[in-house]
Amino acid sequence: MRAKLSYAVTAAVLVFYFVLVGSRGVMLIQSGTLLTVTFGVAVLILPVIGVWFLWKNTQFVHRANALAAELDAEGGLPVDELKRTAGGRIDRDCADEVFGRRKAETEAAPDDWRTWFRLAVAYHDARDTPRARKAMQRAISLHDGKPVPTA
């Protein structure tokens, strides 16, 4: 729940920023000189890119949450079996062991979105966010029946 609240607050702040920057871009364009119109258009590009990025990220989170709910209904969500240090950090050796199992599971069934979802969780636990995101994108693509990019 805390992550959802944090995401909502961040998104709201970004939308406010996009509106603020966009209004400045419009004001520059309304000035009417070649220089201010050029800068105004350039300034308006930033909020457009930002809104697109926020939209794509929100779609990703929504789809990942839908997969989690479906996997939970099937009883297939990965169980948190990771040992933690006294400070609450994940024990590296334990994370490596779980990751090895998840990777082997995914290699054995590369067309199953469930294995890719669990691999994404293992990557996340290992604090490898880029690979976690790619694995989750692959799980989403496999679930939706879309062609999976190879890389």
Task: Give a description of the structure.
It contains 5 helices and no strands. The longest helix has 41 residues, at 34-74. It has 151 residues and is mostly helical. The radius of gyration is 21 Å and the shape is elongated. Helix 2 packs across helix 5 and helix 3 (92-108) packs antiparallel against helix 4. It has helices at 2-31, 34-74, 92-108, 113-125, 129-144. The model has no long low-confidence stretch (mean pLDDT 89).
Instruction: Give the C-alpha Rg.
Output: 21 Å
DSSP strand (E) fraction? under 5%
Helix content: over 70%
Sheet/helix structural class:
mainly alpha
Tell me the distance between the termini: 34 Å
> Helices and strands, in N-to-C order?
HHHHH
Which spans of ≥5 residues are poorly predicted at pLDDT below 50?
A: none
Shape call: elongated
Number of strands: 0
